[in-house]
Amino acid sequence: MNWIAELKDITKIFDGITALDSVNLQIREGEILALLGPNGSGKTTLLKILALLEKPTKGEVYFCGKKVTDKNMPQLRMESTLVFQKTILFNTTVYGNVAYGLKVRKLPKNKIDNEVSKALKIVKLEGFEKRQVKKLSGGEQQRVALARALALNAKLLLLDEPTANLDPKNASIIEEVIATANRELKTTIVMATHNMFQAKKLPHRIALITNGKISEVGTPAEIFGRLSKTLASFAAVENTFTGTAKVTEDGTTLVDIGNDVQIVATVQSSGKVSVFVSPEDIILSKSRFESSARNVFKGRIVEILDLGSVVKLKVDVGKSFTVQITKRSFNEMGLNINTEVFLAFKASSVQII
Amino acid sequence: MEILDGIVKAFQLIISGDSRVLEITLRSLFVSSTATVFAILWGIPIALFLGTKNFQGKIFVKGFFNTMIGIPTVGLGLILFLVFSKAGPLGLLHLLYTPTAIIIGEAILIMPIIVSFATTAIESVDPEIMNLAKTLGASDDQASFAVLKEALNGIITAGIASFNRAIAELGIALMVGGNIAGLTEVLTTTISNETAKGNLELSIALAIILLTLVFGITLVTLAVSSIRRRRK
Fold it and tell me: What is the DSSP string of A225-246?
């Protein structure tokens, strides 16, 4: 097994605050590695060190078998690229953005044109070359940022929360692109995420990171197979609850998460568990309606977060649930803080670890 | 009637392409634009530093440049006169009463405008643009250039405001230039001098040219930047 990058005893301190604490991590050539951890756990700092944009306070970074020094850093930086969590674009055309790295590498014009259109095809933005990026939707902008990174054919692609704050359609396109890039272009990928489902689906390995330390590294099956303490400890992720599960007579599982809220799940489990419901899987209505959903709760909207094309709502049903709906539904339903609403989701949408 | 007569004659002067009017106008344009270029050359690196780096006392440095925007031209003119005069520290260079002295003086005068405006423009650029350019393979210089490109509209505004201040100021041009006919006469000094002498037609002609230049350049820039914005 070949390592493409290796972090040895990396510590990073910003203004007296330790962002990373003696981190050791090896990235295998050709793998997708997910850095799974809550916000503020050090994922972004770790990615920036891997991208050779930040220097560690202590420790050594190896890249493609070479120890990274001040001297070879700019050269080695060419071999990897980072896609930031917040979409950052140059205020110009789609072409101008995707071609930037290729122009820096002084490729001939016809080769640049070719690579740009190839990269745009992968992210499903064919023919978008002449569009101004500021006029694109948030999801399209993030796809341009991804295309700009893919066009470089870098050995190591680093993605910081690539689907955070995106609507499900754009998120699934990006997940598909990540899988394709890894499978067909053989790109090694390290992605930071706090989304457990993404961590379960895409990567070959997962590194759990909390408070600047890596606590566990393993395959998704290994990490999710046992109720990891680390995993449970940052269960502050949206719609993650801990509770007591028992299997009912009809073969489903009833999980009591406290405050008189009981969740029905199809996966059988008992004892202390963590349950997750994806914000996109919850249907929100203003009145109770008959459906096949086994979980229906009445509550009030306590928080509204406008994310552009989608809106995230926090609904208090005894426990606080996050629901994601489109902006259009939000406007048409005339929702506001304190509006009384019903939440419904299927027992099969509930995941238990 | 005297005024009306002056205006009519002023237009005749302009239309006839009077050689003195032309010479003064061209010298003014040359002096002010050269001063603007120099101010940009040494102001932009300062703005880039102030806009992208954090250090102790930054607020004082920024405050200094902000205050310097309003410096009285006569005050700066006097200081430069003393510096360039025979007994002054740079007296050996014999710069007093030359266009070069005006250029240096105006470049010092307008640099704070460049620094302040450009710093604000650079600070409004996403701080990760620098890292973005680097992770796409750019060198440090190329990354800095990417930041400047994002701040271009603000920098152009800074350049125009500086040029307007330079071409319209009187104190420095008069004190270190001396308004010597055929050598250091510029629009503002000539307007002032000829008005004092009662030569209204020339003064009015030059004032019309000065105002047209200032308005014209500002309008063209506004139009260009609005077209750029609409395209985006």
Answer: HS--HHHHHTTTSTTEEEEEEE
